[in-house]
Amino acid sequence: MEKITKIETVEVAISRNGISQAVRFGNVLFVSGQVGEDIQGNIPKGIEAQVELAIENARRILRAAGSDLDKVLMCRCFLQKQEDFAGMNQVYFKYFGDAKVGPARYTVVAPPVADCYLFEIAMFAVVE
Q1: CATH 3.90.1150.10 fits 4-126, yes or no
Q2: 3-state secondary structure the chain
Q3: pLDDT tens-digit map of 2-40
């Protein structure tokens, strides 16, 4: 039986006990929800800046596991406000828009864990 491996990098704020930055099972990586907050706890203003930082945080975790954005199978996106959808897409497609096969995605408008977060993204990816 495959074992579950915890993935962490010091390049992203370490999650609380009981929540891994990511876990790997076989060649599949599950990246926990990432927000637009840097390692020092700074949260930029505006949807575009937060989406970019959240995706970069996820990328750091992917790379720590031996994967990258071009191996992402699915993104789960959460927006605080419907009116930020276009701004989210603008940045999202900067990362995934040129892919031959972009990841599957769904986006939910939902209240954030904290009001300062406008966006959160979780990913499933392949590790080769």
Answers
A1: no
A2: CCCEEEECCCCCCCCCCCCCCEEEECCEEEEEEEECCCCCCCCCCCHHHHHHHHHHHHHHHHHHCCCCHHHEEEEEEEECCHHHHHHHHHHHHHHHCCCCCCCEEEEEECCCCCCCCCEEEEEEEECC
A3: 899 999 999 998 777 789 999 999 999 999 999 999 999
